[in-house]
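Whether sequence alone determines local backbone shape is best considered at the level of individual chains. When preparing material for the folding task, we compiled for one chain both its residues and its backbone structure tokens. No coordinates are needed to read the tokens, only the vocabulary itself. For completeness, the protein is quoted in full, as a sequence line and a line of structure tokens:
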Amino acid sequence: MLILKTVFNNAAQIKSVLRDLHTQKCSSKAQIVAISGIEGAGKRVLTEKIAEALRLEGIAVTIVHTEDWKTSESTRFNVMNSPEEYYLHAYRFSEMIEKLILPLKLFGHVKTSVTLDNVMQPTTVTYDVEKTDIVLIEGVYLLQEAYLDLYDYTCWVQSDYDAAYLRLSKQTHLDPSAKSLLHLFEGLIKPAGQYHIYSDDPQGNTDSIYIEQENEKNDPNTT
């Protein structure tokens, strides 16, 4: 059975859909939106554009980056990891959902934190949200079957692996972990993404697909 998907090519179109969903909702609970794709697809930049546009219309938006909930590099990039193990263990999704996403969805507010336990540079990310209307979660592997019921709306950011590799190569000066992603791209990151697509069919399960315009593909700030 062929299921047609809504296809977007700019952030304003997605903003309009989310604004309408917010206007039509019947409860005061925050709406959870998942924006997913392969590593290097451009999810973060797209999410930030959508959030900025929604805030201009007076909608309270919280952004959650799954990169803030990744496991330690020794776990993520263990030389013994298979692509399936990377897919399963690279991110602390259960902890993120329990400590952050569910409180936001149920109550619209939360105060919590997460520590990235990298040996060389441990950092803590704090969330102190008093009220939010829409939660935008961006990251890889979000469209797993086990998580789909958590979301009010989903968007898959379409990208090929060559373009993703190029984006990651531009991030290495900003994000040290991007260097590891780049180094292990062909042997680990790409196969893990393919495993996700084969196992979870994110394109088939998403509500919409985003395909960026050519002028944005050539924008050096698009990562």
Notes: The chain has a mean pLDDT of 87. The first strand starts at residue 6 and ends at 8.
